[in-house]
Design goal:
Strand order of the largest sheet: 3-2-1-4-5-6
Pfam families: CoA_transf_3
Distance between the termini: 32 Å
Order of helices and strands: EHEHEHEHHEHHHEHHEEHHHHEHHEEHH
Mean pLDDT: 97
Radius of gyration: 25 Å
Helix content: 40-55%
Protein name: CoA transferase
GO molecular function: CoA-transferase activity
Strand content: 5-15%
Number of helices: 18
Number of domains: 2
Keywords: Transferase
Low-confidence stretches: none
InterPro entries: CoA-transferase_III_domain, CoA-Trfase_fam_III, CoA-Trfase_III_dom3_sf, CoA-Trfase_III_dom_1_sf
Largest sheet: 6 strands, parallel
């Protein structure tokens, strides 16, 4: 994405995660912050009060500009940035961005070729359009907490900000598809990504199931994913994750282990799928008979997917990740930062972490001077 200019008026995680990946892949991302900064600067541990770990990760490689958009000078400076941008992306609700004077219609009048991306909780085309949203509320509304209850017996959130991150990736691909269209036609356009719509689509990939058909052929859930016995297996000395799923793997496992409970009713994937919770329960008893390492060795020999249970902290010392060069250490004014790097690989245009996350307003003077606004830098930021 080298040469692509992005004006980033996003905050928290969804939007910044999208633009972080753009920066990793070469885009010039100008992060526009209010005088108090993006709130994510303050929500987790970091080397300074304005450099929390979450912020540092999803804002690496960007340039920070402070603009007070409550002032005419701040708005004027933003207009100058937007008029020369390839992408303008924001996470404000539709009425709020329109009230500010930066709706798609206003922006496109000044920069017809721009890709203008709205990223917020709910599509403005529906009745919930201006409803506030965060990851937890979207997890609840999209059915994620409900399937967790089916799986564990208690409604719960998953242990990661899934809605923010999945929506952020959706914002990324939607924006890049619009850039692809522009490269072919020269035509800019408006893009809208709602967290709710994104997560509804995400959840219904497998959980729509029989409910998609007319008349419905079943309820809206995927039985294997919510089977009560679908969990890591306990071993003699710990736990292991393993999936003995297709017919080849099942045959190899049965031949090697010879569980007494196996019968002809489990011979095919279709048969096992119809009684998947029972199968998982029987497997759970068998896995108690050997140690974790014994199972890892055996399943590895058989080519059956299996893995030990790791913590996020253990990933930093993971042999495979370190062999691939996954982590990148970047110098910052607070010392070296070991970032989880770019997970994709390109033979001709590899990504890299362009630099550390910026200090609040670190590049205000630099950017405004670059855009011919050196004389208004102080007014725009205050």
């Amino acid at each position: 994405m080298a040469g692509v200019k992005v004006v980033d008026l996003t905050a928290m995680v969804m939007g910044p995660y999208c633009t972080q990946i753009m920066a990793d892949l070469g885009a010039d991302v100008i992060k526009v912050e209010p005088p108090e900064g993006d709130g994510t600067r303050y929500i987790s541990v970091g080397p300074s009060p304005t450099m929390g770990g979450v912020f540092a990760n999803v804002n690496r490689g960007k340039r920070s500009v402070i603009l007070d958009l409550r002032t005419e000078a701040g708005k004027a400076a933003l207009w100058t940035l937007v008029e020369q941008a390839d992408v303008f992306i924001h996470t404000m609700r539709s009425k709020a961005i329109a009230k500010l004077g930066f709706s798609y219609g206003e922006v496109a009048r000044r920069n017809p070729g721009i890709v203008y991306t709205n990223a917020y909780g709910y599509s403005r085309r529906g009745p919930a359009g201006d409803q506030p949203a965060y990851d937890d509320t979207i997890q609840a509304e999209c059915g994620l907490t409900a399937v967790q209850q089916m799986l564990t017996g208690e409604a719960s959130f998953v242990g990661t900000i899934a809605a923010d991150k999945v929506a952020g990736l959706t914002v990324l691909y939607a924006t890049t598809m619009a850039l692809f269209h522009k490269a072919r036609t020269g035509e800019g356009q408006e893009v809208e990504v709602g967290m709710f719509e994104t997560m509804a689509s995400f959840m219904l990939v497998e959980h729509a199931n029989g409910a998609m058909f007319s008349p419905p052929l079943g309820e809206a859930f995927y039985p294997r994913a919510v089977a009560r016995n679908r969990r890591p297996y306990r071993t003699k000395d710990g736990q292991i994750a393993a999936l003995i799923y297709n017919d080849k793997h099942w045959s190899l496992f049965v031949k090697a282990v010879q569980p007494a409970w196996v019968d002809d009713s489990m011979a095919t994937l279709k048969q096992r799928a119809q009684q998947i919770d029972k199968v998982y329960g029987l497997l759970a008893e068998t896995f108690k008979e050997r140690t974790t390492q014994e199972w890892l060795d055996l399943l590895g020999e058989l080519g059956i997917p299996a893995a030990p249970l790791r913590t996020p902290a253990e990933l930093f010392d993971n042999e495979h990740l370190n062999a691939t060069g996954f982590f990148e250490t970047v110098d910052s004014q607070h010392g070296p930062v070991r970032f989880p790097g770019v997970p994709t690989w390109f033979s001709q245009t590899p990504g890299r972490i362009a630099g550390p996350a910026p200090e609040l307003g670190e590049h205000t003077g630099e950017v405004l001077e670059e855009y011919g606004l050196a004389m208004v830098a102080e007014k725009a930021a205050s």
